[in-house]
Specification:
62% of the residues lie in helices and 1% in strands. It is built from 20 helices and 2 strands. By secondary structure, the protein is an all-alpha fold. Helix 4 packs parallel to helix 7, helix 5 packs across helix 6 (124-131) and helix 18 (337-347) packs antiparallel against helix 19. The chain has a two-stranded antiparallel ribbon with strand order 1-2.
Length: 386
């Protein structure tokens, strides 16, 4: 009995079949099959008569023949741009353009190519400035009836040192480009979207102190205030934001109040005997002050709506900033804002402007004890409260 038991027991102990689900045996079988498959392709160069073969688990053998070998070297981009005379090519292409949609697209591509030249070539900015090609571009852009909205940001890229940097290069070319953007915003023929885009682009750039210094060396605040009678009504909000970015020091604040107290010639309210007129109290100097824009009949209707709207927005902007910035209250006191606001309240032809002026005046007298005491001594009464 024991003999038969051990005989059948040893017969049952055998190697499992290949179809078993055991992980160790299945992995072993797959590995053996892959080795046999690879060995059929892995032949030496002598066995394949000098012709290479593709070796891989799933690749099929095929012959590869090499006819010739070429050595390629990447070109030197700066030398290539100089040799191809990009500036001369730019002047030729810009000079041959007309005011069409195709020419607008070509002009954008040309400006982008000039930007690559400025960034890649050593002294590229200086070469562009010395060539005077920007004056040719300015004349062409300002002669168009329609300037695409994409032109302004691409123009600004020309004076930026690299992608992602918003600080302009410290060069006269940057000041020239800023003036060109202001000139584009001043064009009556430009659509409102392009002019608003120009104001927004300038506001973004002037958030940096270095760019603001370049702007003050070029276009300055006077050139912006002279646009008031020319910009569309829907661009006033973007314009006021730009003015806020520019007015950071006492001289600019003085110029801004000169703009606020100026009233175009025409019928106005009767002056009070207790208060001098704006012309008597603050006569405009001959240089460095705001010069009113053209007030001919062509702009009279639009000027009657836009200028008061801008003045109201400026007064509201000064009021909002002063509430959270005590240093601005001190600046307003240094420029004589209390007296000038009293003149605005007296001489302004718009009731809304007078209301905003009174609102700002009340804030100044409430926030500055020194200004309040000075106001009481000068007028002999206290009639305003905040």
């Amino acid at each position: 009995f024991f003999f038969l038991f051990f005989f059948f027991f040893f017969l049952m102990i055998r190697r499992p079949p290949r179809s078993t689900l055991s992980s160790s045996s299945a992995a072993s079988d797959v590995y053996k099959r892959q080795v046999r498959r690879c060995s059929s392709y892995n032949k030496t160069e002598d066995e394949t008569c000098g012709k290479g073969r593709v070796i891989g688990l799933l690749a099929k053998p095929r012959e590869i023949e090499v006819d010739s070998v070429f050595f390629a070297e990447l070109p030197n981009v700066p030398d290539l741009l100089v040799c191809e005379n990009v500036i001369g090519w730019f002047r030729t292409v810009i000079g041959s353009m007309d005011d069409s949609s195709n020419s607008h697209s070509v002009a954008i591509l040309c400006i982008e190519m000039l930007t690559v030249y400025a960034r890649q070539v050593r002294e590229g900015i200086a070469s562009i400035y010395a060539s005077g090609v920007l004056e040719d571009l300015r004349a062409k852009l300002l002669s168009w009836e329609h300037i695409p909205v994409q032109v302004v940001p691409i123009l600004v890229e020309l004076a930026l040192p690299s992608i992602g940097v918003r600080t302009l290069v410290n060069h006269p070319l940057s000041t020239q480009l800023l003036q060109l953007v202001v000139d584009i915003a001043a064009q009556d023929r430009c659509p409102a979207s392009t002019r608003s885009g120009a104001f927004r682009e300038l506001s973004s750039l002037l958030s940096f102190s270095d760019n603001l210094r370049l702007f003050k060396n070029g276009p300055k605040l006077e050139s912006l205030l002279a646009l008031c009678s020319q910009i569309p009504l829907e661009c006033t909000d973007d314009f006021v934001v730009l003015v806020e970015k520019v007015v950071k020091d006492t001289p600019e604040m003085t110029q801004l109040f000169q703009f606020l107290i100026h009233e175009p010639e025409g019928p106005s309210s009767h002056p009070s005997p207790l208060m001098p007129t704006a012309a008597e109290a603050f006569p405009f100097p001959t240089g460095g002050s705001f010069t009113p824009g053209n007030t001919t009949s062509h702009h009279s209707a639009r000027n009657g709506r836009v200028v008061p709207t801008i003045k109201c927005s400026v007064l509201r902007m000064i009021y909002d900033v002063s509430k959270s910035n005590p240093s601005l209250i001190d600046m307003l006191g240094s420029v004589g804002a209390v007296q000038q606001l009293m003149i605005i309240c007296h001489s302004a032809t718009s009731e809304v402007i007078r209301v905003y002026a009174l609102r700002l005046l009340a804030l100044i007298l409430h926030a500055s004890k020194r200004q309040k005491e000075s106001f009481i001594r000068a007028n002999g009464f206290e009639t305003l409260s905040y």
